[in-house]
Amino acid sequence: MDPMQKMWLSMIALLIMALSVVIVTFARSKTKGALRFGLSFVAFMMMVVGFIAGLASIT
């Protein structure tokens, strides 16, 4: 992977993780019940994907 691809991958990973923080903040402050769980779960999965993409951009 060339340096430009690594840069784009790391930027995408950062954006995914930032979006997951926004989603979990919204879920915990504005929703209840199953919707809250669903949004939190989606945000957690996005955080995991962002973490893996961040690791891939380092190596």
Automatic annotation (TrEMBL):
* Key words, A-Z: Membrane, Transmembrane, Transmembrane helix
Q: Which InterPro entries does the record associate with it?
A: DUF2768
What residue ranges are annotated as transmembrane? 37-58
Which protein is depicted?
Answer: DUF2768 family protein
Species per Swiss-Prot/TrEMBL record? Paenibacillus lemnae
